[in-house]
Write a structure and sequence with these properties.
single chain, mainly alpha, 2 strands, about 65% helix, globular
Length: about 325
C-alpha cells in the first residue's frame, strides 16, 4: 500500500502561495438549514407570546390615550383624548408627593437590602460543608418559594395591632402601647413592614445566585491575594466583586424590576387597597384608579408611566455596565 503525496502548491509571483478555495457545501455532504426553518419551528411559541404578552401591552398603550370608563366598557365605544390622561396624572400632587416617592424610595431600599443580605448569606454558605450548605440552602429557598399572598398575611399577622406577636412582645417590654399603636396607618412603619416582607421573600434568589458565582472563583487568585497580605474585606472588594460583577448586575437588575412592580405585598396590607392614600405606590394607584374607580384610561396611563420609568432605570444601569466592558 503506497501513500499518495499531496502535490505542493505552486507559488505565485512574489513568493505567495494561493489560498485554498472554500467549499460551498459542508464536508459532511449535508444540506444547509433553510433560513425560514427556525422561524417556522418557533412560530407556535411566538404566536402564544404575542397573544399573551404583546397584545395586552398594546391594549394598555391604546387605553392610555382614550377616555375609557364603565360606560365605554358596556357600549364598546371609546373616545380618543390624546395626552389628556397623562396630563391629569402628571399634574396630580398625589403622583409627586405620594405614589412616586413611595415607589422609588421603596424600590431603592429593598434592592440595596436584598442584594446586601443575599451576598452576606452566600459568603456564609460558601464556607460551610456540603451537607450543611445543602440544608441551609433548602431552608432559605422555602421563603422564596412561599407565595407572596401567604407571606404578606404572615407579616400582617405578626404586626397586627391587636393580636400580633411582635406587638405583644414589644408591649410586654414596655416599648409601645399596643392599645394605641397601629403601624399600618402611618406611612413609614407601613413601608417598614413591607420592606421586611419583600427582603425576606427576595434574598434567597440573590444568595443562591451569588453562591453559584462564588463556587466558580479561581482559588489560586484568592490565595495569591491572601499571601500578598490582603484582608478579608480587601479580597472581597478588590477580587471577588470585580470577578462577580456580571452576577451582581443580573441580580440587581432583576431585583430592581421586581421591587418597582411590587403590588401584592402593598395591596393586601391594611390600608394598601386604597383606604389609606398615603401608602399608595404607582402599581396600586394604577389598579385602584382603573378597577375601583372604573377609570381604565387613567389607570392605563399610570401603568405606562411606571413601565417607562422602569425601562429608563434599567437602560441607564445597563449602559453604565456596558461602558465598563463588564458584560
Amino acid at each position: 500500500m503506497t501513500a499518495t503525496a499531496t502535490p505542493p502548491r505552486q507559488a505565485q509571483p512574489g513568493g505567495r502561495h494561493p489560498r485554498p478555495r472554500r467549499s460551498r457545501r459542508p464536508e459532511s455532504g449535508g444540506r444547509l438549514t433553510p433560513g425560514w426553518l427556525p422561524w417556522l419551528l418557533q412560530a407556535p411559541a411566538l404566536v402564544v407570546l404575542g397573544g399573551l404578552l404583546l397584545y395586552p401591552l398594546y391594549r394598555v398603550g391604546v387605553l392610555a390615550f382614550e377616555d375609557f370608563g364603565l360606560r365605554e366598557l358596556v357600549t364598546g365605544q371609546s373616545s380618543w383624548v390624546g395626552l389628556a390622561n397623562f396630563r391629569e396624572v402628571l399634574t396630580d400632587p398625589l403622583l409627586w408627593k405620594v405614589a412616586l416617592p413611595n415607589t422609588v424610595v421603596f424600590a431603592a431600599v429593598n434592592v440595596t437590602l436584598t442584594v446586601t443580605l443575599g451576598t452576606l448569606v452566600a459568603l456564609l454558605l460558601v464556607r460551610l460543608g456540603r451537607w450543611a450548605r445543602g440544608v441551609l440552602t433548602s431552608a432559605i429557598m422555602v421563603a422564596w418559594a412561599m407565595p407572596a399572598v401567604t407571606g404578606t398575611y404572615v407579616w400582617v399577622f405578626l404586626f397586627d395591632a391587636r393580636d400580633g406577636a411582635v406587638m405583644r412582645a414589644l408591649g410586654a417590654l414596655g416599648l409601645i402601647d399596643p392599645a394605641a399603636t397601629n403601624w399600618f396607618t402611618e406611612r413609614l412603619p407601613f413601608y417598614g413592614i413591607a420592606t421586611l416582607n419583600v427582603v425576606h421573600h427576595g434574598f434567597p434568589f440573590v444568595a443562591v445566585t451569588v453562591l453559584a458565582g462564588l463556587m466558580t472563583l479561581p482559588k489560586d487568585t484568592l490565595e495569591a491575594a491572601a499571601l500578598d497580605g490582603a484582608g478579608a474585606w480587601k479580597r472581597f472588594w478588590h477580587v471577588t466583586v470585580p470577578l462577580l460583577k456580571p452576577v451582581f448586575a443580573v441580580v440587581t437588575i432583576l431585583s430592581t424590576i421586581w421591587d418597582f412592580k411590587v403590588f401584592t405585598q402593598i395591596y393586601l396590607m391594611p390600608g394598601g387597597s386604597g383606604t389609606n392614600r398615603d401608602v399608595l405606590n404607582l402599581g396600586t394607584w394604577s389598579y385602584i384608579t382603573a378597577i375601583s374607580q372604573n377609570r381604565y384610561g387613567l389607570g392605563a396611563a399610570i401603568a405606562v408611566l411606571l413601565t417607562l420609568l422602569l425601562l429608563v432605570i434599567t437602560l441607564v444601569y445597563l449602559r453604565t455596565l456596558f461602558k465598563q466592558d463588564e458584560l
